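Box 4.2: Ligand-aware structure prediction
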Amino acid sequence: MRASSLPLLMKCTGAAVLPCVEGKSEAAEKAADWGTMVHYWAQTGIIRGPNKRAERALEKAIEVAGVDRLSLWPTGGVHEGALSIRVDGTREVSRRDDDREGWITGHYDYQYWLFQDVLWIDDLKTGKFYPNPEPGDERHIPDIAVGENRFPQDSFSPQQKTYGLALSELLSHDGPVSVSTTHWPRLPLSYRHAEPMRSWVNYSRQEMLTHWRALELIYEESCKNRRAMLGHEDELVLRPGDHCRFCPVRDCFVRQEFA
Ligand code: SF4
């Protein structure tokens, strides 16, 4: 499982077992290319995109928003690394991109020590900003303020929490972990042409370990769902909601009401 799928899988593990749409839509391709281009620029200072138009769009965004990539993260940290965490009951972590059964894997963007003993992990996100609508709208999420991004670029995302857990294990760190998300959305344009937004959340060691158990439960349910798909006695568990809009399973029979 990819760590980037966790915001969806924590809401519905059906997304891990039902057949997904093959390939990416044109819009998803554009978004992925933009993300790759921004990450490359953030790490090297070089703008190298899929085409001149995209490169000019990033140049303009940097200029209009006044973004200085060197001021986004302190010097002395570690940029970009692979992480994997085992969730099938045996607890292990690795710095490899271990896309194996029973593992969750992904890449964090930045790691640094704050006040010498607080592990800080930051993730740069470039996905679209989805404002949380007013109460009464079926897409409204009561846990966050109206106008805040509702899916999935927030620092509370289980993706970032998983990076924090895996890195604290790898670094034998049993102290606090600060996780942040630096969100510089490609769309809408008003957000692309504004400074990135950074949001933070702090976790204790116990919260990190509780998260490991939550990941194991997600994996257990995915396995049950896979058995259900094969016609075994387990029941297929699907949890539809606003997140269905972001699910790659297009022909899910319970998705329709949210499509
Ligand atoms: S469409 Fe919704 S209910 Fe169906 S698998 Fe995806 S997230 Fe689950």
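In the box above, the bound molecule is iron/sulfur cluster. Strands lie at 78-86, 93-94, 103-114, 118-125, 177-183, 197-203.
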